[in-house]
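Today's session is about reading a structure prediction critically. Students often jump straight to the picture, but the first step is always the sequence itself: look for stretches that repeat, for charged clusters, for runs of hydrophobic residues. Only then move on to the predicted structure, which in these notes is written as discrete structure tokens rather than atom positions. Here is the chain we will use throughout the hour.
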Amino acid sequence: MADDPGGGASSPQAGLAPANTPPPIVLIPLQTKNKSTFTVEIPRWLGWLFIISASSFLLFLSAFVAYRLMVPRFNVLPEILEDLGVDGVVMFRQYDRDDDGYLSLDEFEPLAHRLLETNETHIYDVPIEDDDHVVTLKTYFTPLILSSMSKDLNDVFGGSMNSLIGLQEWTKVFVEWKNFAAKDFKAFLPENIALGEVYGISGFGSSSEDLKGATLSSNRYYPPKLYDDGILIHRILSMFHPRVFILSRFAPQGSVACIRAYNEEYLDIVFRVHAEFQLNEPPRYPFWFTPAQFAGNLVISRDGSNVVYFRMFVPTEQKLNIDMEWLNGPREHESMEVDIGRLPLMEVNMTAPSFAAMENGEDQREMQKTDPVQLMEDLAAIQWDEEISVVEARRILELKLYPFKKVPYFNFTDAYDRAKIEKKLVHSILLWGALDDQSC
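Below is the predicted structure for this chain, in token form.
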């Protein structure tokens, strides 16, 4: 045995750890050209302990979050439950979005809109009389292309309170087809027959001129009750979704029309409708689905007894034709999210010429007729005394709703050619959406 540096004899076990002791953390200096580095060796048991502890914490946290989402944060006292009833408590919790047992003003706002009306969603059933003609309308709908939105829905949204659930679940129309009375379409007739003159077919009404252009609340779920003004448009659009607002929150609001052509018997009416849909119900936050516009065409007898042709659709010429706005929190100005996307198809058409409600004693009011060939033949057979083009009629309506379009706008390449001719500068505007419809 060698002597240690201090002169004493070394023990046979000196410098050796007990057999069951884990290897220690060893710091080994590594020499490099310019500096020294160290390698840290951590015992395996310590690494496993960390992994098990972290997993247990995440499991506990997930269970806690799930518990907080599923179990209310306040308890209903027995006497309150007895007085209010189960339905009352359920209704309260629908609007108590943060589940704290109190309704803030922001939480109360949609409830106030509901309390001011007699029903949640109004249904307007208008009977078809025996001596009337029947008009069959059919809807066509292809859901929004979710990938056309700028937001990644998989990364941003999720959970039971996902505000976009209403959008994701809207995959088919509410009513596939429906019969209307021909006389209902008198709502599209003007007071005076004048070619290309714009008139309103729905809006605030003549008694509320001061409200035109007012911005309406986004913190709502149910459309207000209608009377005469706009009921037909509501009935048609509710075939797509029951919660349709025929008066949009932002200008231009309402619907306008003009006569494109006429003769002694018939009128050809071109119209434009601005409406939107509310896709969510409490307790989820509101989600607004606003098409760029509904363009339409109606050919009807002057007395409104016979409808020859009807079509209403969302144009698809633009790459993006739907505006979407939704709330992710109770405060409208702080929690609003926006996006735009593409809707391939949203259209309602007349399927056959209007027919008598009663014929040879047979009641045909619930009958669905389809004869597109005869429909187009009847339309083509009409000779007009005076007319303008469909393009011109739509341009007239556009200028009425968007006065700024009186200044001509050109696409990028045409603008430079025009600037050279007129020797003027080019003012270039880059837009995400369109300024002359509601998809902006």
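Discussion point for the tutorial: The chain is about 25% helix and 20% strand.
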